[in-house]
Specification:
This protein is of the alpha+beta class and 680 residues long. The protein folds into 5 domains: 64 residues, Helix hairpin bin (Helix Hairpins); 236 residues, 2-Layer Sandwich (D-amino Acid Aminotransferase, Chain A, domain 1), CATH 3.30.470; 99 residues, OB fold (Dihydrolipoamide Acetyltransferase, E2P); 165 residues, Orthogonal Bundle (DNA polymerase, domain 1); 68 residues, BRCT domain (Rossmann fold). Helices cover 37% and strands 19% of the residues. The chain has a 5-stranded mixed β-sheet. A 5-stranded antiparallel β-sheet has the order 14-13-12-15-16, covered by helices on one side. α17 packs across α18.
């Protein structure tokens, strides 16, 4: 029975690794959460259960083995003096009781004093002071190496520039107060820019700007909660918080000391009730042992300190009425049902619309127009309709009839094999065209300021932009259109738009491929494709010859994605747009697409390298980046094709496999020597 179960679990485990890795990358790197905290936590806990039952399945790629995410290549890196760990999550009183039991057993003490602090929902940061002065600051990154955000930290007004007679680190959370978030979104709405999903996204996106003037234009706030210093001997966490307050730092006001479980539960419930009224977003309560000596003696795992735990709040829920159900057409033709709701406030935010995901989910939950429903805004991200209150369903209620034709262009809707999405396959459908235009100018594509969603729709409705090529002709057309005379525009905003469009005309091959909006071709696939073709002429040559199958040579790209390439450019208008933008391979186009630099040559070129164990002087991601820079591949498992294994401390089964196969094994120091790796 175990063998059969193990096979099923192995498949599910692989699925969870892939999904959670994607969600984590979007959350930590791009500040763009794809699911609610509650949904992520549910999947994460399922993965933990599988790892507990089948420890042999545990992978180094597992989120249970990682903290945060790799620092972005766009920033300089700062190595933390001590790891910035995550917190283990608790979801019920039983989890907290287990935390108390573990702590008592490990410490040998029955009476343990705890400091309870609000779990702020922002971006963790570490600020270093030397001889009283603020000298540098970093994000958490992967826990070992963070992003250098020093110049941006200097723009946050409530952070002291000096601390009398102090050298060391102050750690805390960069957040955006609710009032500042609402004002920022109000201004972005007026400018036609995409709105931030929540204060956490706004704070993270603002702190991780390459231009500190943008950070300075947004009101960020720093809440401090920890101090690392060899010069001051603190005895308790309370002393740390008092020190921070005295020296001008902002510290959360909802903090208390508890001496038993019942006191902690009472405080948790009290703050949960006050949550919506606070000026900042929180998603739980941090339980932290007050005695710092006891904290140190308990130590930590590879990911969590054993002296603290975060008791998460349940997702906020409310009741409201479904006024209507509409269907929307996405960029790739997917039809999404959306519930239009009687406005209701959840967590201080008014919600009037909620996704119903897809046809299957809508039918499974049997949501109907007129239903009283339970609505959830989990993690302050996307509102979700959970289920209808059947006893309050109107007698005249009828199941929603999903359309068989596109609500925009009237084309027949289809559903592919093994697909949840019902879709319109007419690529010339206006709704799809507009969504592709919005995608084309988005941050990770051409990144054109002043062409937000509302302005794209405006230009499309006015007939000024009908395809991506038209974007680069707006200035020329303005001789007739006179945009600066239209309400909401002015001479300066028009000049800024033209400047942004012209600046975008030089673009990397991977961003250009991503901008086209090809189904299944996100940023990662675009990057792999660009690295494969190297330059635009090779790329368009493959497209014009309908040789999408060549993409299957790329590790990680299968036949399905290759088919989507061929199908996308089988549409004559899409191929024409491609040729007008980038040229036909022989003549120049409207824009300049830069080549991908050939990888530098050294001992790693063309080789498969495996890293195993724990490394002191570099992170796994840093090593992988270096190997790929030199044209090698950092593989996750040892095979006869492996050229080299780099072994750190506590190397396990991979090291044994390498020895059996006779593969060359080197140490961390040897790797640094032969690669001339520069530690940042």
């Amino acid at each position: 029975m175990r063998d059969s179960l193990s096979a099923d679990k192995k498949k599910r485990y692989a699925e969870l690794l892939k999904v959670l890795s994607s969600y984590s990358r979007q959350y930590y790197i791009f500040d763009d959460p794809q699911v609610s905290d509650a949904e992520y936590d549910s999947l994460y806990n399922e993965l933990l259960e599988i790892e507990k039952e089948f420890p042999e399945l545990k992978s180094e790629k597992s989120p249970s083995q990682k903290i945060g995410a790799q620092a972005s290549k766009n920033f300089k890196k700062i190595r933390h003096s001590a790891p910035m760990l995550s917190l283990e999550n608790a979801y019920n009183e039983e989890d907290i009781a287990n935390f108390f039991d573990r702590t008592r057993k490990a410490s040998g003490k029955q009476d343990i004093e705890l400091v309870l602090e609000p779990k702020l929902d922002g971006l963790s940061a570490s600020i270093t002071y030397n001889n009283e002065a603020l000298v540098c600051a970093a994000t958490r990154g992967d826990g070992s190496v963070g992003e250098d955000v020093t110049q941006n930290i200097f723009t946050i007004q409530n952070i002291p520039r000096k601390i009398s007679a102090f050298s060391g680190e102050v750690r805390g959370e960069v957040i955006m107060l609710k009032s500042d978030f609402q004002e920022l979104n109000r201004l972005r709405g007026i400018a036609g820019e995409k709105l931030f999903a929540n204060p956490r996204n706004a704070a993270a996106g603002s702190l991780r700007q390459l231009d500190s003037q943008i950070t300075a234009s947004r009101n960020l706030t720093f809440f401090a909660y920890s101090v690392l210093s060899n010069e001051i001997n603190f005895s308790t966490q309370k002393e740390v918080l008092d020190f921070l307050r005295v020296n001008g730092f902002t510290v959360a006001d909802k903090i208390t000391i508890c001496r038993n479980q019942s006191e902690t539960f009472a405080f948790y419930k009290e703050i949960e009730k006050q949550r919506a009224e606070l000026e900042y977003d929180i998603d739980g309560i941090v339980y932290k042992i007050n005695d710092l000596a006891l904290q140190r003696s308990l130590g930590s795992s590879t990911k969590f300190p054993r002296h603290s735990i975060a008791y998460k709040f349940p997702a906020e829920k409310a009741q409201t009425t479904v006024l209507n159900i509409i269907t929307q057409v996405g960029r790739t033709g997917n039809i999404t049902p959306v519930a239009e709701l009687k406005p209701v406030t959840i967590g201080g935010v008014v919600v009037s619309r909620a996704t119903l995901h897809n046809k299957d989910e809508l039918e499974k939950r049997d949501i109907r127009i007129g239903d009283r429903v339970i609505l959830q805004r989990a993690g302050d991200v996307i509102p979700q309709v959970l289920y209808p209150i059947l006893q309050e369903r109107p007698p005249s209620s009828a199941p929603f009839e999903f359309p068989t034709n596109c609500p925009c262009c009237g084309s027949d809707l289809i559903r592919g094999e093994d697909e949840a999405a019902v879709k319109c396959i007419n690529m010339n459908c206006e709704a799809q065209v507009v969504e592709r235009l919005i995608h084309f100018v988005s941050k990770h594509a051409f990144n054109i300021d002043g062409l937000g969603e509302q302005n794209i729709k405006f230009f499309y409705d006015e007939g000024i932009i009908k395809n991506p090529v038209d974007i680069f002709k707006i200035e020329e057309k303005n001789e007739k259109f006179r945009l600066e005379k239209i309400e909401g525009w002015g001479k300066q905003s028009v000049e800024n738009l033209f400047k942004s469009i012209n600046n975008s005309k030089i673009i990397s091959l991977d961003k250009f491929i991503y901008s086209l909006g090809i189904p299944q071709v996100g940023r990662a696939v675009s990057k792999m494709t660009a690295n494969f073709f190297r330059d635009y002429s090779n790329f368009i040559d493959c497209i014009r010859k309908k040789e999408g199958y060549k993409l299957c040579e790329i590790n990680g790209i299968g036949r399905s994605i290759a088919n989507d390439f061929d199908n996308f450019f089988a549409n004559a208008s899409n191929l024409k747009i491609l040729e007008e933008l980038g040229g036909d391979g022989n003549s120049n186009g409207i824009i300049t697409i830069t080549e991908v630099a050939a990888p530098e040559k050294n001992i790693f070129s063309g080789q498969s390298i495996v890293f195993t164990g724990v490394f002191k002087r570099f992170s796994r991601d840093e090593a992988k980046e270096l190997v790929e820079k030199f044209g090698g591949r950092a593989a996750s498992s040892v095979s006869p094709k492996t050229a080299l294994v780099v072994a750190g401390e506590n190397a396990g089964q991979k090291l044994d496999t390498a020895r059996k196969l006779g593969i060359k094994i080197i140490s961390e120091d040897e790797f640094l020597e032969i690669s001339q790796f520069e530690i940042s």
